[in-house]
Predict the 3D structure of the following.
Amino acid sequence: MKDIDEIEAAIRLSRCKGIGASMFKNLIDKYKKPSIALEEWKKNQIKYRNTAVSEKKNNTEQSIIKTLKGLINKEFQAFYYGQSSYPSQLNSLTEPPPIVYLSTTLRKMPLAAVVGSRNASLEQIELAKMYTLNLIKEGYGIVSGGAKGIDRVAHETAIKANAYTLAVLANGLDIIYPKEHKELFEIIKKKGALMTELMIGAQPQKGFFPTRNRLIAAMAEIVVVLPSTNSSGSLITAKWANKLGKKLVCA
């Protein structure tokens, strides 16, 4: 695989204690290549010790090896911040994810997000279908979070309309969550793509979902939010859409 050495260096750099998204970005902006950034980090750890990032990060060697094996076998793709193939939409984030993993190459087209409650009412479901179909007619691919409820409706509506759809996950690409979406994700792989910033083997955790939602907002030009509770993750997506200057539609 092309650039596998640099991708490995990027993965290893991202897993170093003290390296968060901001520090990774700063190092790549300065040194350009992850291999050089990694060596400089190793040489100057004391210099960078006063970072706000937790020092408790595990350097999970087994996950790194499994991830690299999957990349070499072309089971999925990975791109690091600063790489030409890295999704350009994510550069709008002040702290873009160091690495993104994709089931397949992203199609170059405008995307619109449709998000909402996991426990959607029939009225909300019909609204989601309507907005999704209207966005598809306007030439947008559909991005959502692969969750139950409105996310699933958005993806399935796009699939039935033979449109492109992207699911941004809060777990590794080898993890099926929720379990009942296994078939859906297989279809999305064929009709679009799965995306995550988490390595192979990463199980979904509560804290991963809010960070996942920022990627949904960043990838989309328009964000449609269906009615949801005040604690809903879709409202986090809406806040990110506002922060990033995206067109926000609250249905």
User: Anything to note?
Assistant: The chain is about 40% helix and 15% strand. Residues 22 and 173 are 24 Å apart (CA to CA). The longest helix spans residues 122-137. The mean pLDDT is 92.
